Amino acid sequence: MKITDIRWEKVRVGMEPFKISFATIDAAEIMILKVTTDTGITGYGEASPFSPVTGETIDSVDAFLRTVTPGMIGMDPFEIERIHFMMDHTFTGNGAAKCAVDLAMYDIMGKSAGVPVWKLIGGFRGEIENDTTIGIMAPEDMAKTAVHFVKDLGYRILKVKVGIDPDDDIRALALIREAVGPDVRLRVDANQGYDVSRAVYALEGFKKAGVDAVEQCLPWWDRAHMAELKTKVSGIALMLDEAVHDEKDAAALLAGGCADILNIKLMKCGGILPGLKIADVAGAFGATCMVGCMMESRLAITAGLSLIASRSCAAEADCDSYYIFDDAKAGITGGFVEENGVARLYNEPGFGVKINF
Prior knowledge:
globular; TIM Barrel; 2 domains; 8-stranded parallel sheet; 357 residues
């Protein structure tokens, strides 16, 4: 099998403003990649760049693809390690752009083998309990949103964005817990918004609200203080996200005693192959993983869910951006169905996603 043609197009979708500690997001802008082979099998990939985390823009993704894809013509999609080697030796970073290529290769491999990607790469589970995310608002509004997600939509896990004001954050979590009751799981994402002292203060308040885990309290580069924070906190798991871009980061952070859980995002690491490497490093250290997302369509969300489905150590899912992304405008359907916070992957070859492109 050989690659014969590669094309891509940009999709931009507006959305209700969503606030995190360092940004307010009001649109999703992605690149859809289409790869055709000499067997007639076509695979699709997606890049969802987010410059504060991946250092990319939609224009840099376009420049990456213009540079890399001519050299991919004639390559075999099953030679996925070779394809990543070529991309990594052409560009450092550029995780979202590399992810688009990686996902298209896995979609082709699954279709060629006649199996879904989640089975092709491991096949541990086909059903995944997903969370949904509450952005930063007034604490009372965050509690109202939590009630809507739990009572109206059936979610049993909530992820709450914090990181601007610890007192407001503690109050928000207390109000959310009071509103949703004791049986809903809560996790918190500070998006690098704290320093050590503010983090210790906030985490003590979060423990009173029964929070399971707190994600990326400190700046991504501050490994020394991540390890210090770990020694000062008990009774609540510490997760890292922006600090983890590849398996080398994963090994260094876990060996340094910086985290209990790693958040893998395909757009950070470059797709499924590097995501599997991170998960396997975490498993070797006895840690667990969550797979998260940027502002992604159903295509990339299906890929993230497939990674979770493939590994026992990938125990948590934060793959919820598809519900604010207008998949109908992008012409994207399939992949999975979600009901009451439980996603069920399709048992179709590749990602099982249909795209009008």
